[in-house]
Structures are given as C-alpha cells and as structure tokens.
Write a structure and sequence with these properties.
The protein has helices at 10-30, 57-78, 92-113, 118-134, 157-175, 181-199, 203-223, 232-252, 259-264, 266-281, 294-326, 331-362, and strands at residues 40-41, 53-54, 142-145, 149-152. The strands form 2 sheets. Strands 1-2 form a two-stranded antiparallel ribbon. A two-stranded antiparallel ribbon has the order 3-4. The protein contains 12 helices and 4 strands, in the order αββαααββαααααααα. A hairpin with a 3-residue loop joins strand 3 (142-145) and strand 4. The chain is globular, with a radius of gyration of 20 Å. The protein has 366 residues and is mostly helical.
Length: 366
C-alpha cells in the first residue's frame, strides 16, 4: 500500500507553489495564437461559449504536474530534497497511477486533435480503469453505511471499481462545459482530497493531491469567466481519471471511507448522475450532446457563467468541509450527515427548477 506520513511539510508547499507558477506560465503560452498546440474549441449545441477558444489548457496542468514530479524526484535522488512525495519507500501504486495517467492523456489529446471513435475511447477508459485494479492492486472491497453495517463486495469488487473509475472519468468530461468549473472543482476537490489523506495519515497521497490542485490553480487563472482557454479532453479526462484512481487508492488503503471522495466530488457526481437518469426517464438519447445539466440550466436561465460558477465554488467548499467533518464523527452523526447531504441536493435541484420557472415568467415581458 501507499506509505503513510504525518502531514504537510515545507517541501510539499514549495513544490506546490512552483507548480502553480509553472502551470500559469504554460497556460498563458498555450492560449496564444502562435502556440504550436493552438487547437480551438468551436461552439456547438452543447456549448455555453459563443466564440472559438483554445482547448489545450489540460496540457499545461499535466505538463507542469509531471515536470514538477520529475524535478522533485531528481532532487530526492541527488540528496537536495529529503521529504515530500519521493521520500517514501513504497510508491508502486502512485507510480502506476501516474503511468496510466500519461496513457489516458495521450489518447485524450488525440481525441482533441483528430477525434477518436467513441467505442475506442470508452474501451481505453475500461482498460485503464482495469489496470488500476489489476496493475496497481487497488479496488473497493467494501461499502460502509454508518449504523447499518458494511457490505463486502466480494467477487464484484473489481467490476464495481472499474465502473466507479469510468464513471468519474466521464463525469469530469460531462461537467467540463462552463468557464472555471472543472478547473475550480480540481483545485477545491483535490485540495480536500489531499486534506482527507493527511487526516488519514497518508502523506504520499496527500502530497500528490496537493500538487494536482496547485497545477490546476495555475490553469484556473486563465480559465475564469470569460475563459481565455479550456482544458479540453486531455485535461478533463485525465483529471477525472486521477480523481477516480486516487479515491480508490485511498479507499483500498483504509485512508478514508468511500463516502469521503463521493462527498468531495459530489457537485459533479450528483449533477451528472441526476441528469443522466432524468434523460433516461424522458426517453431521450443520452449519448447526444445537450445543455440539460443543472449548471447549464442555471446559466441559460439568466444567472450567467460568473454567478453560477461562484455558486458552485461555494457548494464545492461546503461539500469538502462535510467530507473533512465526516472523518471526525461517530456512526450516528455520519448517517445524519449523509442524509442531510442527500436532502440538500434534492433542495438544490428543486431550486434550479424554481429559477427556470421564474425566468420563464419574465420572457413575455422582454
């Protein structure tokens, strides 16, 4: 399993600051028309943006992340650095996850550049997710419901874990449709995931999550509304994979309960899942592009991207704080927290319908 540590050290913070600055510089360079990787995202029936925008920001996030990891590894080998990510003896799982990230990023970049058939794309996602289970040896063996007991998944553990990772990968892709949204979820989400890992005593997992959040922070500077650059599939798919894979690593190692990453990334998970089931119930073709996610409906109802994304940031922070609180509660309080969380989302979804209804009443008066 991944090695355990005690907390945030100074070297981790210095590396995170370096990644933030490097990612910001790379993102700026990639947003310029003279960039060799200047690929434009043209508006379509799913888009909320109205003009062509570069979509290679994910390269800046991943490029700065891996550059920082290589530099810190070199510093550790040469004896310049004595703490941080590479100071642990057992890093096989993390190294395997990083290798798989490069693989899924390469396929996603090809999809951004020339297009990859959906069947091939999902096949790659399945193979990569399976490699987490059978290569890294991480899987969800049990699901605990506070006070009600623990369900041992048994022989279905591998299949359930692969589905979980694939769903998180595609959730990230589905939700990357508004300026500042996926970038903000990455900064906040991985920040709280890292905090949860440190609370659980796992410095390696916590440091890597912190580095991902920092790399995304540099990109977010240029992705806030109105965005100068998007992350593209190379960013959203890869970050979705990292969110799913690192969550599984933490769960399988007993660092945190399965509900912790679900709570942290619930602004994406709940919106995408509820939208999928609503469209299935309405007998719509779920594979077609659409603008029916709750965040899209808020934007189209008059809130606009800025107001909507800031509301989402508040929601992300509330859910992240709930995940941190979960670690310190007893079973009874945990069950109340999960029940309150579900009720809270039901209220939010009803609130979106109310916003749409209010907006529809104003149309005849315009």
């Amino acid at each position: 399993m991944v090695s355990k540590g005690t907390g945030v050290n100074l070297e981790n913070l210095v590396v995170a600051a370096f990644l933030l600055l490097l990612s910001s510089w790379l993102t700026h360079r990639l947003s310029l028309p003279n960039s060799r990787l200047y690929l434009l995202d043209y508006p379509n029936e799913r888009s909320l943006h109205s003009h062509p925008t570069p979509r290679t920001g994910g390269i800046a996030v991943l490029g700065s992340l891996f550059a920082g990891l290589l530099l810190t590894y070199a510093g550790h080998v040469l004896g310049w650095l004595h703490g941080g990510l590479w100071s642990k003896s057992d890093l096989l799982q993390i190294q395997w996850i990083l290798l798989l990230t490069l693989c899924i990023a390469a396929v996603s970049f090809a999809d951004d550049r020339v297009g990859v058939p959906p069947g091939v794309r999902f096949g790659v996602h399945a193979v990569i997710a399976g490699s987490v289970v059978f290569g890294a040896g991480a899987k969800i063996d049990a699901i605990t419901i506070p006070l009600l007991g623990t369900w041992m998944v048994g022989d279905a553990a591998a299949f359930l874990t692969i589905l979980f990772i694939m769903w998180i990968v595609n959730v990230y892709n589905f939700m990357d449709g508004m300026d500042g949204f996926a970038g903000g979820m990455t900064v906040v989400g991985f920040g709280f995931l890292g905090g949860s890992a440190w609370i659980g005593g796992n410095e390696t997992l916590g440091a890597l999550a912190l580095f991902i959040a920092a790399a995304a922070g540099g990109f977010l500077v240029y992705n806030m509304p109105p965005a100068k650059i998007f992350m593209g599939d190379v960013g959203s798919i890869s970050l979705g994979f990292l969110a799913g894979a690192l969550s599984v690593v933490g769960i399988s190692a007993g660092v945190f309960d399965v509900w912790v990453p679900i709570l942290i990334f619930s602004p994406f998970i709940m919106d995408a899942t509820a939208t999928l089931f609503r469209r299935l119930f309405q007998m719509k073709k779920i594979w077609l592009p659409h603008r029916e996610h709750y965040y899209q409906r808020l934007v189209l109802s008059g809130w606009g991207s800025k107001k909507t994304v800031w509301a989402e940031y508040v929601l992300m922070c509330v859910c992240g704080c709930g995940a941190i609180l979960y670690a310190f509660l007893g079973d009874g309080a945990r069950l109340i927290l999960l029940g309150s969380w579900a009720t809270f989302y039901g209220t939010l979804m009803a609130g979106v319908r109310m916003v749409e209804w209010e907006a529809s009443k104003k149309v005849p008066n315009q």
